[in-house]
Amino acid sequence: MKISDIKKVCVAGGGLMGRQIALNAAIHGFDTYLTDSMGDVLAAVEKWSGEYLAGRVAKGKLTQEQADAAKASFHLCPELKDAAEGAQLVIEAILEDRDVKLDFYKKVGAIAPEDAILASNSSWMPSSTFIACVSNPGRLANIHYFNPALAMKLVEVVRGEHTADDTVQTLVEFSVVNGKTPIRVNKEIEGFVVNRVLRALRDEAFYLVDEGVCTPQEVDLGVELGLNYPMGPFRLLDLTGIDLNYLSSTTRWKETGIKPNGYDIIKEKYEKHEWGRKTGKGFYDYTDKK
Hints:
This protein has helices spanning 16-27, 39-58, 64-73, 80-84, 98-111, 165-177, 194-210, 216-226, 233-240, 242-256, 263-271; strands at residues 8-12, 31-35, 74-77, 89-92, 117-120, 140-145, 154-158, 181-185. It is an alpha/beta fold.
């Protein structure tokens, strides 16, 4: 599979990441099909995409002709079959749940063409997890976008031992064509590159809070003003989703037997539905900004 062979892109999952990955591809000229089994999600995506494109035109970031072309290339499909059939690239951005993803790859493996690339946007579940679900594991890899996917430039392209060379190269080229800067992660490792570095910072930040040294907000101020980071670890958690962090932390605990620093804090916020910006409250309150 070469980049020139990619005519149809399927993105599975209409959540925060999936919708942005799909619209980004449509803006850059790919005929893109976003699928989600929940009709209310697709309805929300339709409204959001129209507002986003109109906003880009108003700001002079896109011409009206470019926005119209992107809209024409951006298709919403409630059925996976319609979205994945005939696609040369499938990007999975569904719920970060192992069983849900395994079921998805079994289904899409039987629908998409035999040589279609199947790439997971998961930030912590490597593509080797899904080898048994497909007949051609050489087409499996991770393509990890960062939130917000429309704005963030970095993409991690992760090679598993099973991943074919041309799969990696095509995903790298696809990232570049979509205005991103890819880095190659040459072996599967939990957390890949960026999240491993971030986790080291976050673990220490949670340790400081757990020990009563300072508050999350004070950690953020220290990191932002002392290290010149654009966003502290807790403010970043609010942006990326406390729910996702809780799920990945739970899996990490089960796999290592070591309870992550700050787990009880995250668990409490997860159970209270304080997931960050998406719910209006996390470590900060966003209700007055809605």
